[in-house]
Amino acid sequence: MKFTHLHVHTQYSLLDGSAKIKELVPRAKELGMDALAITDHGAMYGVIEFYKTCKANGIKPIIGCEVYVAPGSRFDREVVKGENRYYHLVLLAKNNEGYHNLCKIVTRGYTEGYYYKPRVDMEVLEKYHEGIIALSACLAGEVATDLRQEQYEKAKEAALRHLKIFGEGNYYLEMQDHGIPDQRTVNMGVMRLSKETGIPMVVTNDSHYINKEDWEAHDILLCIQTGKTVNDEDRMRYEEGQFYLKSPEEMEALFPYAKEALENTNKIADMCNVEIVFGERKLPKYDVPEGYDSFSYLTMLCEEGAKKRYPEVTDEVKNRLHYELDMIKQMGFVDYFLIVWDFVNYAKSHDIPVGPGRGSAAGSIVSYCLYITDIEPLRYDLLFERFLNPERVSMPDIDIDFCVNRRQEVIDYVVQKYGKEKVVQIVTFGTMAAKMCVRDVGRAMALPYSLCDKVAKAIPNKVPGVKDVTLPVALKVSPDLKEMYENEPDVTKLLDMAMKLEGLQRHTGVHPAGVIIGQKPIEEYVPLARSVDGGIVCQYEKDPVEELGLLKVQEKRILDQIILLEDSDPEELYTSTLLDMRVPGKVEGEKRDGAQQNMGMYSKESAFTRKMHLQEALNKIQGRIATVIGKIQQTEENEARIKLERERLELLRLRATGRVEVEDDDEEGADDDSLHK
Question: What is the dihedral of CA 614, 617, 619, 622, to 10 degrees?
Fold first, then answer.
């Protein structure tokens, strides 16, 4: 029998779902399914990852969300309490219109209806119902709640109200069976409702984890979410361990009396055909002064900048500049450069520290003439093509360093210029890393703190050649951890549970250096959420945002993001590193061909490839140079402080003794002596 799961929670139902997308989708494929839905609680954080993973595995992705519906208005705050504070409702996008409407519905939940949960109401559903299929949801759905409370007529009224909103063929009464008595009561009521109203039924399983044996780890996850332990009787739990991704055969065995409802899962899957377009640019337009279009204005800015940057604007400079400008125009990035120039210019004109510009943008003379970067590309034969060329699929990436203390001023300027609805920051996620995961799981299992602490401390912070130290890696490299795992049953179970939960998204945050700007309100493209500080963020992370064609402005924090060089001094950095790299440059007015030099590991590579490697290395060096300059400045500041402190100490000495001592010829020694007094 063919069956499609339409009610599925992933890791992005934060601390409520433990199904990792990268494992969930292959499991669905293994069970013989050709379609699968994602319906996380209240949000769409995982949609792009889910969509791409499904496509890669030959499975149709069904995009959805289990939204929270307020019983009255989404603006009400203290109307009802308990389980009637909000209801669940599953929404699935039929087509691209439905997907965009779903984004808006979910956005409204956060921006207008947030009260404990991101809630919407009937007004929002009525406004954005086109292209959406609705399911009545689980025991927390309005219809199911009324049936549990033996209010059949009220349940019927709710079902008909939903039917009126979404229309014939777009609303289904949901049936589930996880061995919970209330579900059997609800299913009987649903069958009666379906018979009396003609509303079709559909079977779902409300899965929150992948395999049956994952129930215990998921139970621990719920304890972490609620601050409880597994020993607490009065806590949230999913009974009977049946909330996993069941096979079609298991679902058929549960519902032998509801064949049509089982078949409706495939009918709905066939109706859902969302195609998310990647790479389609959605760049905003830059407002240019009267008498200019975007390209002529950019050209004027570059030509004026060239006159300031170069003592003489040679033919070489002119040719390179207009070559780049033509390429920028050809690829449709004129407004992109104007926008970046605009906020960099704003920062500099307001004395906000801005870095010299890093990354492949250093190879662009346009960036140099616009004062976006301070690295002259002709001097080092830097390649513009690595930054921008017709074969490059992604947008050019300009890394800009703003002072961390004043970066918000730049963001505020961008918001004011383009409109707050068109400028949002990007979400980021805190995950359950190895040590934190062990402590959280141990606490939920009610294990002694001393034991959890001992296990966590046995996990190494770093392992050579390994980017992230996961628990499986730690077990391989830490003898103490391995010994505890093999010989102590409590530790064995602790680590087994922790390894199932490690890497799950724990909470949301705001990307410290990511802002997106759209030509339309951002909710037209992606769903929005409310951050922990009350601000609005895009629900997709930075990489999906860029793939969707939105303008992503990245800032690397000067003080926080540049890695300080260990055991190196400025002389070695400027001279030996450059000499070792054989940087192509000019000798006595003639260009030196880097391709003809013996460059060790690059000796067998082509001239073009070598230049690419050189540019990459140079880009890294520019960041190091910035760090060294920062070190020098810091040293100078420290020396100035020391000098002032010495003067202060000398005054104190004079005040205390009334004596004036003659300084030694060795000034440095005298200073040292004064410091010890």
Answer: -120
Which helix (DSSP H) or strand (DSSP E) does residue 280 occupy? none
Model pLDDT, residue 627: 53
CA distance readout (Å), 232 to 219, 255, 424, 523, 633: 12, 33, 41, 42, 57
pLDDT digits (tens, 9 = 90+) for 243-258: 999 999 999 999 999 9
Query: Within 10 A of 647 (CB to CB), how many other CB atoms are there?
Result: 11
Radius of gyration of the chain measured on its C-alpha atoms: 31
The CB density around residue 293, as the number of other CB atoms within 10 Å, is 10
Question: Could you give the angle at the alpha carbon of 537 between the alpha carbons of 533 and 540, nearest 5°?
Answer: 135
- Give SS3 for 553: strand
pLDDT digits (tens, 9 = 90+) for 304-326: 999 999 999 999 999 999 999 99
Enumerate domains of the chain plus CATH numbers: 21-210+245-271 (3.20.20.140), 294-427+509-561 (no CATH), 562-592+604-677 (no CATH)
Q: What is the DSSP string of 197-263?
A: H---EEE---B-BSSGGGHHHHHHHHHHHHT--TT-SSS---GGG--B---HHHHHHH-TT-HHHHH
Single pTM value for the model: 0.74
CA dihedral 467, 472, 477, 482 (to 10 degrees): 160
